[in-house]
Amino acid sequence: MFEIVYNGVEKNANYREIIAKVVQECYKKENLQDSNLILTITLTTPQNIRKLNKTYRNIDRATDVLSFPVFEKEEIEEKIKLQDFEFEDMLGDIVISVEKVKEQANEYGHSFERELSYMVVHGFYHLMGYDHIEDQDKKIMRKKEEEILEQLKINRSGI
Asked: Taking the model in full, what pTM does it have?
């Protein structure tokens, strides 16, 4: 279902537990629990995510999360509709800056768990083809993100 890569960040059982819980709920919500779709989540440093942001988006700054989907939205929707999961396939990659997660949790006044969970959900929905550039698309994506966090009872003040 998922793999965690630690790039410049120490392995952490707590991170893995949070990520596992969130990914499992995302897969359940989107009817992917019986799929062979795999995603990779890389936990990294601001320096590493900045390099990726510069290379792939031509933006020379660190960010909190980057997503690299394999499928277009219509393709993944069709796979789900047909339950076309005979073979193992990559859903995509999510890259998260752990330091940014800590900073933002502090800035927004909620727990590290809540912020990391949000980054995972946010990245997951980008892999599913959702975006937040246009207001209407942003509303749809935010609603899906909040539904996952509410189901897990992870709110803005923590748990």
From this structure: 0.93
State which residues form the domain around 84.
Answer: 2-151
- State the residue for tokens 């390099």: 51
User: Can you give the pLDDT at residue 111?
Assistant: 92
- 50 and 64 Cβ atoms separated by less than 8 Å: no
CA dihedral over 126, 36, 118, 13, signed as positive or negative? negative
Spatial CB neighbours of 69, under 8 Å, sequence gap ≥ 6: 76, 91, 92, 126, 127, 128, 129
**What CATH number does the domain containing 27 carry?**
3.40.390.30
pLDDT tens-digit profile of 133-159? 888 888 999 999 999 999 999 976 544
